[in-house]
């Protein structure tokens, strides 16, 4: 009998979320457990066990489990990875410390340098040289490879090896031969090649990406092997898939080979859920707004797809300063992430002012109201004090919240020292966090020349729907959408994400001088590699859709924009269409084009994807009154008002209601002010319209910001 049960699992900083879907039985079941940071797989196994019991499902009936992990990000941030060695071209072993030869803050005389993944004694220069055109200038010094790796393994006790030779993105022959030599000596040593991890121009970024891949690889191998064994002990015999940073899913074998591609694995799932809803509802422009226990994440969804970028900076020393982290050449969902989640701690800084975050109470001990030992008030505690949460209905009543403990903590830590009453202190927490999220969202959109008033806000995560109305008002957004199951929407995102494989090849050339035979050969190689990966997920080659793109720039510029191009075979006859696509993309980004300057291509990209699954979190409405009662709720601009409280599961498609209101479901709660009306659409999304005074919230015709 065909297995039809699939489970999505998202490990967050506070909660681990679950969604089970069985197409054959039309079952959808959600779950939420406190994260177990000391052993993340424990919460996964316990949550899966509970889902199986609640749905009368046997572990052997599960076709697949899709999982996202923050292990790579945490390993880089905490510097708890493997002991790594590096083989580089002779004379270039210090590229990790030289970097871009620039300071990320020119005014800081005590600037802290970005730590490198591989200390200098573990880096060895190897003779041999590939030229920029891919031809060999000097042969590989194979004896030097033997000497270096022998010392690294036997004396320095490395756990993984990175190999990054000059111009390997054009010709990987030296790297491939070096790996062959290494594996001949030490067959079980994990080896990462830059020509496979990041076959792109820019020596520093390519070397850093390869080193980070090697740095996290042993931990990822151990984690995924343990998780696979723990699930097998339950009787699970299906496929375990992993979410990529780009929003696609891949096999566990590919994840173990290229773990650096998972660095934004968890956050990407929420964006994929938002993109799914955008396609389902016909919303062309969405701001995906995901607030969990530790962070808030924002992403733009346009034409049913999240914005994607092909570089990422990990482990920043200063969160908002570009250049203070490790630059990686990986494909990721383009989002901003700030330390403003439900568990973000409110405190008083050295100037006597209230601040919120970036410290978080996480799952241990958690917010004060959780009764798990927390003593510092958090955003969730403020939401409880202001009436947005019901202390008796948190997690559907499974986890009672302590209002008295919150009052004591707010009095002791904030209100007393600041000379405020409890309510004012709680309002301060909520307004600070809303303002910081609004400022970050405005900046993210402005950098892309976008106006937030042109978009609808899609809110999810445990805390996202609570703060969505306040954020929407600050951004002057007129429509707010809250999906069914908002509190576990990232886990849902794993189930609606398509298997995806991203490939890239570096080839720098002016368009008019391009060797189209070489270009077509690269795309054929990329397509073959991508299809092989997707077939490992159970997909059929005939179902694979290919998308071609290329990183392009004007000659003389330092950085590129990614442009979609026609599928080949390509030739001179496509030059006009490719140039026009570049100019259109460039103008959308910078509101200008440059005349009489040549255009060059840098990296040629291919994305292969299988069809996305189509499922729904909608349930049959329960046959009970929708209105539960009323309670006092604080809304900025209106003060404390009496709001109607509704049971989300009793609302039916087509119903239209008015604020002020609180709509509660098991994993989240959403609040709407007096100036709102909302309907339940056919997919059981709450669609909220905010009534602004005339002329407010109407997009201007002028560009918000032109970046040139």
* CATH T-level topology of the domain at 5-75 and 222-262: Nucleotidyltransferase, domain 5
Going by CATH, the homologous superfamily of the domain at 5-75 and 222-262 would be ATPase, nucleotide binding domain
From the structure provided, what is the oligomeric state, counting identical versus distinct chains?
single chain
CATH class of the domain at 5-75 and 222-262: Alpha Beta
CATH architectural name of the domain at 5-75 and 222-262: 2-Layer Sandwich
Question: How is this structure best described in words?
Answer:
- By secondary structure, this protein is α+β, with helices and mostly antiparallel strands.
- α4 crosses α5 and α10 (379-385) crosses α12.
- Among the domains are: 5-75 and 222-262, Nucleotidyltransferase, domain 5; 500-609, no CATH class.
- Mean pLDDT is 89; it is low at 698-708.
- Strands 13, 14, 15, 20, 23, 24, 31, 34 and 35 form a 9-stranded mixed sheet that branches. It has a 6-stranded mixed sheet with strand order 3-2-1-4-11-12, sandwiched between helices.
- Helices cover 31% and strands 27% of the residues.
